[in-house]
């Protein structure tokens, strides 16, 4: 039940651009168990999506390049696979849900055809079987009147319905791992709640691992089991969700939690993390967060902090801060 | 407080404390749908905004929330005269500005400025920051004498927290948050009294959002501004607003002071909306009641009869299809003073707490900013 | 206030508002306040130097959050920087520069007279002093090819200018104002698109008796403007929807300000690209029309005329045909390559 499904070890990804080399991912390490939801939290440019693309094997190379690291899926290093083997894993064993459902669906094919394709390609199903399967899937993601809408085209569905179709497509072959990259960011709140609920329910039902990539601390609190917070291409903190919200052990996590306005209270002035996220072409030496950190000391400007085991305030958590203890307590 | 009469332009029950600087009455914007190539025949209308009333007091922030397609951005555009209303009035200090043109319109525009959502398309990429912020002075030369403009622009840059030396840079050399500051500086240049901000932080990263919101907060006091703050993020709206209007399909369905709306909502749509917002507190997820609405928002070209929310409402009854509910204090709360007694356009309004009431202490020691 | 301050105490790189604001103002023409000398007391140049030193010391994209680190760069200067590095641009640019020079001063490289012919030397091949040989009329092919550049370049440039101005003004206004004017203009461009160029040229130009290049240019403008007009209209409509145009309107900007200050600079790039590429095609169109006998007429010296007259001797004296045809091909190619390079540099999607 709690077998490790996916383990990313010390992953490094670079992008070669006209202006230089951007280090998008600098040693990311995280793992997902079967049936677990890991939320990868980060702002734009933190490397959260690039890591996911590397795991899926859909990174654009060039300009992207995985320079080192391991991606262990069910104990096997995917980076050592041939492209052909990799393709078999993709779709059948792990699937991805993207933010923009409209551009992820082919506008000239009916949704039934796109859903059915999964079965004809991977399972060798006949057209008739594929159509029946497509209807079944659409039912499963609760699209009303699935049988009559199976021939409709993506533009005939609303945003929320399209995202359901994306989920259906990801679930089609009952993969062991789903990566959802900002699945509800483009949706309205009321629809967002519907889609998130659906995703969580199906995940429980199928006991899948789920990597939820998001910038929304609220969504994370609602569905995640564990959180990995990313900053400038590194994991800065990773912990069970309850512990991290109660007592963050990294100043960046702490700053993020304090900087969001809350629905249930009329705040004073918001805490704001000073400055801007770093340029990935030129990440500050030492701890990448040091120029914005209120606790930064000399050692932070010179030494890259390792992932310290956080022994207080909960188990099974790490923090990449030299002063995690001070952060926890103050 | 006068009781609101059907159709009549009456005092708002939730009128702002001071003298309203802006009064909006019966604001309507319909976009005609036409058919035919040579002879355009109108076959219908997209009712983007379909009868909106509100007041904005001097120095106050009115938040307007709603989902995409509810017409909130169209309201913003009408307030700054980028769109002409199909019907209704926008009274600035008592005078209707919807019919103005030429010199009179230009004069009013000085006082009502806008901050746009997307910092990447709202700044002309071919102009320097100095030219962008200085443009208002070229259009309204009476505001600042020519020789003084450069200094004014640099002052503005400093006010919004940017280095005044970057006056000769181009927008693409700045990050999103910095660009939004430039947009705010441009909005401030003419010293307006009202700023209409259409989703000013939704394109920004979380850590930068807080900086920009704090900046807007500070500028409000410093320049005695009134804000109309339009957003889909309910938490941000609560943070910044004194009063809130909730829009659904072209109309305001509920309006009141922020605590009235957030802690004592009476309209089912507001309740559903609030209950759907993810709260950044994992402890809350077990004991939170969530109202999951069915289906999607109907098309504004084909609005349901009666109450426009009835197609998704769990309380909908026959009356809702027949009778349009008015935006007024519901009968059951009318004679009690209390937070539930605020305008709500529902036949079956009742109080329901959907936002968890025991706020969890924010982690760590509260800090009052970083600088 | 949460506004970031520099993480380490550095010399005042960011003047306070009450202080005179740094080097940019030193030539600003503003009456100086008291203490008009810059904050460091060492004048603008020193300030600039300290600032640079500072920005060198700090990492790029640095954390102080007060602004971008590099020098001011407009999109045009970025495009120019790209172009300078692009070998395609350099080669085509040099070819075009050479063409312009020889069309202005053909005598620099050709000392002869293109109209001086000697029938006795008809169809003779290459010989010392006359590297390209002689054509059917006994005229020096080298001299005529050099002199022919002038007509080709003039026709190309004038026709392109005319097309670009007429097309972008009409298309731009239609795109900006929309409505009935736009509908009428779109129908008119459709009509012009329906006219086959060569056939139209045969019909229209055959009734013209003037032997100057202007009827040909006029004809090209007449048939060419709808193409640019469409591009300009589309480009203006796209640009018009940008928030910065809305922002200007909300400020109370007049139509002319929005058009000139906001829309034109942002909408002009596609027009420039298409016009540059079209320039090459106009040069070849001139040759085509002259070849067909309705374009330029002797004694004008033009590649088209030469190709036309040499075509009857193609078996006996192919050189008389190949040299002007080659010159034409190189010229057209150069302009099309230039257009490609310019498009790459201006294409916002690559930015």
From TrEMBL, chain B:
Q: Which Pfam families does the record match to this protein?
A: ABC_tran (PF00005), oligo_HPY (PF08352)
Q: Name one GO molecular function term.
A: ATP hydrolysis activity
Instruction: Name the InterPro entries for this protein.
Output: AAA+_ATPase, ABC_transp_ATP-bind, ABC_transporter-like_ATP-bd, ABC_transporter-like_CS, Oligopep_ABC_C, P-loop_NTPase
Alphabetical keyword list: ATP-binding, Nucleotide-binding, Transport
GO terms in the biological process aspect are: peptide transport; transmembrane transport
Signal peptide interval: none
The UniProt annotation puts the region (Disordered) at 351-371
The ABC transporter domain is annotated at 22-274
SUPFAM superfamilies recorded: P-loop containing nucleoside triphosphate hydrolases
Q: Which family does it belong to?
A: Belongs to the ABC transporter superfamily.
PANTHER family (alphabetical): D,D-DIPEPTIDE TRANSPORT ATP-BINDING PROTEIN DDPF-RELATED, TRANSPORT ATP-BINDING PROTEIN
Q: What is this protein called?
A: Peptide ABC transporter ATP-binding protein
């Amino acid at each position: 039940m709690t077998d490790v499904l996916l383990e990313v070890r010390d992953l490094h990804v670079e992008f070669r651009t006209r202006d230089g080399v951007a280090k998008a991912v600098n040693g990311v390490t995280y793992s997902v168990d079967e049936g677990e939801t890991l939320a990868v939290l980060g702002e734009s440019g933190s490397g959260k999506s690039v890591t996911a693309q590397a795991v899926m094997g859909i990174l654009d190379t060039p300009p992207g390049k995985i320079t080192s690291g391991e991606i262990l899926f069910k104990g096997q290093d995917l980076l050592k696979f041939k492209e052909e083997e990799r393709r078999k894993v993709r779709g059948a064993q792990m699937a991805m849900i993207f933010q923009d459902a409209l551009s992820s669906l082919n506008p000239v094919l009916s949704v039934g055809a796109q859903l059915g394709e999964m079965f004809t390609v991977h399972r060798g199903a006949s057209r008739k079987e594929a159509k029946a399967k497509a209807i079944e899937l659409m039912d499963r993601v609760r699209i009303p009147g699935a049988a009559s809408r199976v021939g409709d085209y993506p533009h005939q569905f609303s945003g929320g319905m399209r995202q359901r179709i994306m989920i259906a497509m990801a679930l089609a072959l009952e993969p062991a791992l789903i990566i959802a990259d900002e699945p509800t960011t483009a949706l309205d709140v009321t629809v967002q709640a519907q889609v998130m609920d659906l995703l969580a329910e199906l995940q429980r039902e199928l006991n899948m691992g789920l990597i939820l990539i998001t910038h929304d601390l609220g969504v994370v609190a609602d569905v995640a089991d564990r959180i990995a917070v990313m900053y400038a291409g590194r994991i800065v903190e990773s912990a069970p969700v309850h512990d991290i919200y109660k007592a963050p052990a990294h100043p960046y996590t702490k700053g993020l939690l304090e900087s969001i306005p809350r629905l249930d209270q009329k705040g004073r002035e918001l805490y704001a993390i000073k400055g801007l996220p770093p340029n990935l072409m030129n990440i500050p030496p030492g701890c990448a967060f040091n120029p914005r950190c209120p606790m930064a000391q000399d050692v932070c400007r010179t030494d890259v902090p390792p992932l310290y085991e956080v022994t207080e305030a909960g188990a099974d958590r790490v923090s990449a801060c030299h002063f995690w203890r001070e952060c926890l307590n103050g | 407080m006068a009781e609101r009469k059907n159709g009549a332009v009456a005092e708002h029950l939730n009128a702002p404390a001071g003298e309203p600087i802006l009064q909006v009455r019966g604001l309507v914007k319909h976009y005609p749908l036409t058919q035919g190539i040579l002879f355009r025949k109108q076959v219908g209308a997209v009712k983007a905004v379909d009868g909106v009333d509100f007041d904005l007091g001097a120095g106050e922030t009115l938040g307007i929330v709603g989902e995409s397609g509810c017409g909130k951005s169209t309201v913003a555009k009408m307030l700054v005269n980028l769109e002409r209303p199909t019907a209704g009035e926008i009274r600035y200090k008592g005078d209707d500005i919807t019919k103005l043109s030429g010199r009179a319109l230009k004069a009013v525009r000085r006082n009502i400025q806008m901050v746009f959502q997307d910092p990447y398309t709202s700044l002309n990429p071919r102009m320097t920051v100095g030219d962008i912020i200085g443009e208002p002075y070229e259009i309204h030369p009476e505001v600042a004498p020519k020789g003084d403009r450069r200094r004014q622009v640099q002052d503005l840059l400093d006010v919004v927290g940017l280095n005044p030396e970057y006056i000769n840079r181009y927008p693409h050399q700045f990050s999103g948050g910095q660009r939004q500051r430039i947009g705010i500086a441009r909005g401030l240049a003419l010293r307006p009294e009202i700023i209409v901000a259409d989703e000013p932080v939704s394109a920004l990263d979380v850590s930068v959002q807080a900086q920009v919101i704090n900046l807007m907060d500070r500028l409000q006091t410093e320049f005695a501004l009134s804000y109309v703050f339009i957003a889909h993020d309910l938490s941000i709206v609560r943070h910044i607003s004194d009063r809130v209007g909730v829009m659904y399909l072209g109309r305001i369905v509920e309006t009141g002071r922020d605590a009235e709306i957030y802690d004592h909502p009476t309209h089912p749509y507001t309740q559903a909306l609030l209950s759907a917002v993810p709260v950044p507190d994992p402890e809350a997820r077990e004991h939170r009641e969530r109202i999951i609405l069915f289906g999607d928002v109907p098309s504004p070209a084909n609005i349901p009869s009666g109450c426009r929310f009835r197609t998704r409402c769990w309380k909908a009854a026959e009356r809702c299809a027949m009778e349009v509910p008015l935006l007024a204090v519901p009968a059951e709360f009318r004679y009690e003073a209390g937070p539930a007694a605020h305008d709500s356009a529902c036949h079956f309004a009742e109080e329901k707490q959907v936002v968890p009431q025991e706020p969890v202490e924010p982690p760590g020691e509260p800090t009052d900013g970083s600088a | 206030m949460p506004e970031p301050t520099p993480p380490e105490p550095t010399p005042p790189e960011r003047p306070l508002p009450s202080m005179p604001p740094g080097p940019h103002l030193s030539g600003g023409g503003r009456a100086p306040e008291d203490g008009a000398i810059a904050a460091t007391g060492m004048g603008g140049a020193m300030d600039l130097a300290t600032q640079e030193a500072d920005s060198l010391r700090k990492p790029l994209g640095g954390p102080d959050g007060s602004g971008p680190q590099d020098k001011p760069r407009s999109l045009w200067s970025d495009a120019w920087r790209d172009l300078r590095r692009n070998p395609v641009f350099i080669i085509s640019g040099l070819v075009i520069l050479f063409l312009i020079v020889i069309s202005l001063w053909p005598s620099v490289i050709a000392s002869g007279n293109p109209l001086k012919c000697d029938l006795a030397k008809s169809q003779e091949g290459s010989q010392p002093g006359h590297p390209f040989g002689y054509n059917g009329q006994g005229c020096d092919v080298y001299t005529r090819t050099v002199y022919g550049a002038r007509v080709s370049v003039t026709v190309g440039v004038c026709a392109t200018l005319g097309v670009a101005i007429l097309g972008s003004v009409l298309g731009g206004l239609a795109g900006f104002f929309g409505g009935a004017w736009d509908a009428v203009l779109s129908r008119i461009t459709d009509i012009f698109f329906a006219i086959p160029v060569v056939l139209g040229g045969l019909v229209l130009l055959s009734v013209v008796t003037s032997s100057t290049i202007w009827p040909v240019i006029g004809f090209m403008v007449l048939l060419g403007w709808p193409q640019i007009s469409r591009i300009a209209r589309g480009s203006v409509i796209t640009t018009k929807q940008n928030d910065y145009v809305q922002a200007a309107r909300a400020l109370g900007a007049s139509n002319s300000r929005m058009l000139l200050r906001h829309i034109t600079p942002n909408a002009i790039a596609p027009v420039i690209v298409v016009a540059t590429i079209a320039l090459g095609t106009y040069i070849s169109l001139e040759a085509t029309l002259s070849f067909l006998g309705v374009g330029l007429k002797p004694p004008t010296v033009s590649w088209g005329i030469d190709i036309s007259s040499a075509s009857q001797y193609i078996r006996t004296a192919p050189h008389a045909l190949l040299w002007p045809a080659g010159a034409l091909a190189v010229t057209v190619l150069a302009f099309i390559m230039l257009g490609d390079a310019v498009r790459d540099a201006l294409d916002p999607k690559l930015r």
